[in-house]
Amino acid sequence: MQRHLVDEFWCINVDSTAWSKVLHRGTRREFKKGEQIVSAGELVTQLRYLESGSVCMKRTTLDGNEKILMHIERSSLFCEVPFFTGDEIHSSFNCHRDAVVYCFSKEVVDDILEMYPCIAKDIIRTLSMKVSVLSNQIASLGLDTLEQRIAKFILLRYNLMNLADADLMTLGTLRMKDVASILGVHRATLYRALKTMEKMRLIKLLNENRLQVLNIEALAALANH
Questions:
Q1: Residue 114 — left, alpha, or beta (φ > 0 → left; ψ -120 to 50 → alpha)?
Q2: Which domains does the chain have, with CATH numbers?
Q3: DSSP symbol at 18
Q4: What distance in Å separates the CA atoms of residue 54 and residue 162, rounded to the nearest whole number?
Q5: What digits encode the pLDDT tens for the residues 34-53?
Q6: In this structure, are residues 155 and 3 in contact, taking their beta carbons and an 8 Å threshold?
Q7: Is-above-0.90 flag for pTM?
């Protein structure tokens, strides 16, 4: 299946193995889907490594509006910026899929950085990837139409899947509300745009959080217009 080049703008897949040698220095914690791992307004005193599962980073306003900033997949650090800056965090981290997280205190992190230069390189690599993803997100929110953002989102999902069954694509554990938040719109606005793309014969909406890709080349052309 041909892959279509699209800049990642919401999902972090670092897949780091550097931390495996120091996990014994951290505190192991388990979280179930929906549990909050880090709260907005918290002073972050521990660096966290996601061994398995996935974590959602979101920003919530006082009146309850939410924006999903990124999803972090297994084998990656998270919450490192407020840990190193010492500032209160303005976003929250919630468990999206059952997760195992290792927490490291500042004293332990300082010790690890002296002993393992590869850990320092991994932190730089992880932060660089997140800057790239968030830069792509800002650019897409500011420059792309909603239909273009949807096309990019579909292409990113498409590239990860082996679509042998008539190009049927599932959103997996994501709800339509989550997709709308990632794309920076209300769910009703997203649904209207999806219906427009359905009328354009680009996709077909199905039940159970699925859709059928009808014209992948036209979607790619729309995404890169």
A1: alpha
A2: 11-141 (2.60.120.10), 144-223 (1.10.10.10)
A3: G
A4: 21
A5: 999 999 999 999 999 999 99
A6: no
A7: yes
